[in-house]
């Protein structure tokens, strides 16, 4: 017996599910977000937000709240036992530019990121059904029927699995994951509040790479209550079983760092794991999609997992809305086409960073982790009609840069659920596109774009580019974007 219906059922209220639900809500698409747990995830796990993800959060209208909840990454401080030593910067810091206004990673505990996203979802009229575990699902040509442990049944046009690395949905579909152990040695992660007299300052990210029994990193976290740190400890013994109890965490710190057990005032959250890298064999099965950790599992090195997951949701949301409004079903094929290769590449990056030594001085992270270079030039959605472009020129499929020209800020023009038709440094006749959710803007010549006409997707990538608008209406008709009105 079906107890409720929706257009999109999202399983899992982590960052992926919350971004997807919020973006669907602002598009006016009916969605239901369910979560097996009784509350949002409480820990710091995915604590780094990369520049591209900050752009997504700007578009969603939550970046100011994210900045208020976080801080810039601290510099690293290398310890030899009880003695502090050299400092170094793990990040290759860069200055903001007109094209890239958010240049460096931002440190925000995952729990705070989720709180901000949840607040935005509620502002948009959405909600999370907590304590709702999935028991099973079936699908047919018209939709998906999901059964829950509380006996309720939901019928949806589409279902998105955002339920993590141990995804119930992925297992129910029989979709395998291909992967490897990045590191056979176990790790423990914990959020620890320490006393005011604990002998480590809040100004640095402290590392003891040569600590007995395994290296330790101790990163200060923004907290209104103060003196909160994320502990990440590795074990040299592959057979070790991490003690995740508060007493076990305090003992580990006392054994490996200058802190004593009495310096641990509170242990808020703990987890143990072995670093893995794995990729789902496919990201779609009929009317069901995999996103976030349900589709790809990363080593935490390089801060790539949460960021890749957020961008999965950002890629999928506008496509679901368009198809539900009448665009051809084949538009949804481009989700896997675009995101699976990206996830595979990023898995390689995080694995390389981990194996290079995440606690070693000199291990620095630059452009490869910022995700600004991700693009979809080979996508079926991409049309580049210009010829003889210079090397390095912006092309269809690339991220659309920010900038201010002619009294217009581009990111503000792009912000929202619409497409943007942008004329740069030229004044061609543009097609009239009434009721098609395509905003038109004209700006003077701008070196980040060159000159021409650019159609920017709702997720901030150039879909179509030309010297004039010739062929644009045909492109929109082929994709069904005009017919969909989205």
CATH architecture of the largest domain: 3-Layer(bba) Sandwich
| Subunit organisation of the chains | single chain
Which word captures the global form?
globular
Specify the biggest β-sheet. 8 strands, mixed
Helix content: 10-25%
Stretches where pLDDT is under 50 for at least 5 consecutive residues are none
Beta-strand content bin? 25-35%
Radius of gyration: 23 Å
Number of strands: 26
Helix segment count?
11
CATH superfamily of the largest domain: FAD/NAD(P)-binding domain
Overall mean pLDDT: 92
CATH structural fold name of the largest domain: FAD/NAD(P)-binding domain
Assign the CATH class of the largest domain. Answer: Alpha Beta
| CA(first)-CA(last) distance | 33 Å
Domain tally: 3
Q: Label the structural class.
A: alpha/beta
Give the structure's gist in a few sentences.
By secondary structure, the chain is α/β, with parallel strands linked by helices.
Describe the fold and architecture.
The protein is an alpha/beta fold and 486 residues long. It folds into three domains: 4-72 and 97-179 and 277-369, 3-Layer(bba) Sandwich (FAD/NAD(P)-binding domain); 181-276, Alpha-Beta Plaits, CATH 3.30.70.2450; 383-484, Glutaredoxin, CATH 3.40.30.120. It is 25% helix and 29% strand. It contains eleven helices and 26 strands. It has helices at 15-26, 51-59, 63-69, 110-123, 168-173, 246-256, 305-324, 333-357, 410-414, 472-479, 481-484, and strands spanning 4-11, 31-34, 48-49, 71-72, 75-80, 83-88, 106-107, 128-129, 134-139, 144-148, 153-161, 177-194, 204-208, 216-221, 228-234, 264-280, 284-285, 288-290, 296-297, 383-384, 404-405, 408-409, 419-424, 438-443, 452-456, 462-466. Strands 1, 2, 8, 9, 10, 11, 17 and 18 form an eight-stranded mixed sheet that branches. An eight-stranded mixed sheet has the order 6-5-13-14-15-12-16-19. Strand 9 and strand 10 form a beta hairpin. Helix 7 (305-324) packs antiparallel against helix 8 (333-357). The chain is globular. 47% of the residues are buried. The mean pLDDT is 92.
